[in-house]
Write a structure and sequence with these properties.
homodimer; alpha/beta; 60s Ribosomal Protein L30, Chain: A; Alpha/beta knot; 2 domains; seven-stranded parallel beta sheet; five-stranded mixed beta sheet; elongated; RNA binding (chains A, B); transferase (chains A, B); RNA methyltransferase (chains A, B); tRNA_m1G_MTases_N (chains A, B); rRNA_Methyltransferase (chains A, B)
């Protein structure tokens, strides 16, 4: 059973994992430093716990004690109980969805581990936007892909906003970061994957004219600059979603959805 | 040539079309009442003008005068020039992308007009989120659909956020509102459309098992409650995007992208 601790002071040192949740830059460094991430809302906390993640602590207003009883019973972490106004003073915003939990960040998987049994992998290059990362994780999981690999500059899938947009898919879908991005094409080849780079270049093959290989990796780049030259050159195939004239492009989450659908196992 | 008017006072009555741009509720009523919408950024203003829309006025900081010269030359609307700090005081946020324009809201098209020559139509029910409406307009246009029809409760495609997410596709893609939503299925039938309701129900046909009709309308509902019973009953086909076990669903913009791709003309 969680240790229920009533607090009145929003400046209490024990609440430091929950301060200024709207300050993206601050939070990114704080959460990595302390090895935590923030799960927001009863549903998300439940999913995180169901995925085997451990709460370091919880923060909630009294009226959510009932809703959260299963989680409170299942953990020995401290649960800080404050009135809603004080919680707002700590976090910087009104928490609609009940509770917050500072979760222990699980150990990151290795690329090798993630690729070992996968047949369909989405590889993302330099997607710095948390909403895009979250949307992509959700789409990829829904469409039966097995895993996601991220370049070093990609946004954190365990950031609060990513988790929310992903509807918790970040907890169940295997993902890993590739440290040596330059060697990534070779790495995928070594693991038996055929690579398909999504691009807007004229000489790319329409995605519906391609039969996916037994083990396929689809690579998407950021919306502005697009996929790097290196990846475009080093991938086995360059593919395009044919589009109507005069339209710049689909957003990266939409093109990923279409690509995963087209390559569905 | 635009009438260049230098102002110092952020409270100047002539700036009233630009006040409190972050207050969604206020802006929704103000913009409809005054028959305007706000175009943000040089690129968006250029696209609006290229689509035949007329500026009522412009608002910009001196350093953007050069970038906006083509537009300034092409209109006789007043262009209010203020320093950036004062602009921020008017609008409530820092305008990164240069200028703002209060555009005359174009007359809404009739449903009949929009359907007359269309072969592929996306019909949206009660999507109240501006980001979703914007994303859907962008996807639909990119994938060669001809038009979008909106239920009365759908968010405004000409709201600043929708326009931004749509990358201006709202200016070129024909769209209309259906006032009598209950009669919408019959209306589409009368116009020769076969209707395909996107649903999560068990007895729906997988979308890749269907051959789209010559004139096809795809209907999507909101993420929470899903498409209304009425539409599910009255549509010619009920279709589903098959998904991996344990995932709730795709978000509405992603499922629309896949549906439009699958039904591409």
């Amino acid at each position: 059973m969680a240790d229920l601790i009533a607090l009145d002071n929003p400046r209490d040192e024990r609440l430091r994992d929950y301060t200024d949740l709207r300050d993206v830059q601050l939070r990114q460094s704080v959460e990595h430093e302390r090895g935590i991430y923030i799960a927001e809302g009863t549903k998300v906390i439940e999913r995180a716990v169901a995925a085997g993640h451990e709460p370091k602590s919880l923060l909630l207003a009294p009226r959510w004690l009932g809703t959260l009883s299963d989680i409170l019973e299942s953990t020995s972490a401290p649960a800080y109980v404050l009135d809603e106004k004080s919680i707002e003073r700590v976090t910087g915003f009104h928490v609609h969805r009940g509770a917050l939990a500072a979760m222990h960040r699980p150990a990151e998987r290795s690329v090798h581990d993630v690729l070992a049994t996968a047949r369909r992998v989405l590889v993302a290059e330099d997607l710095v936007d948390h909403t895009n990362i979250g949307a992509i994780m959700r789409n990829v999981a829904a469409l039966g892909f097995d895993a996601v690999l991220l370049s070093p500059r990609c946004a954190d899938p365990l950031y609060r906003r990513s988790i929310k947009v992903a509807m918790g898919a970040v907890f169940s879908l295997p993902w890993a970061r590739i440290d040596d991005w330059y060697a990534a094409p070779a790495l995928l080849r070594e693991h038996g994957f055929t690579t398909y780079a999504m691009t807007l270049s004229d000489d790319a093959v329409p995605i519906d004219a391609i039969e996916p290989a037994e083990r396929s990796a689809v690579i998407v780049g950021s919306e502005g600059p697009g996929l790097s030259e290196h990846w475009q050159r080093e991938s086995d195939h360059r593919v395009i979603i044919p589009m109507a004239a005069g339209i710049d492009s689909l957003n990266v989450a939409a093109s990923t959805a279409i690509a995963c659908w087209q390559f569905r196992p």
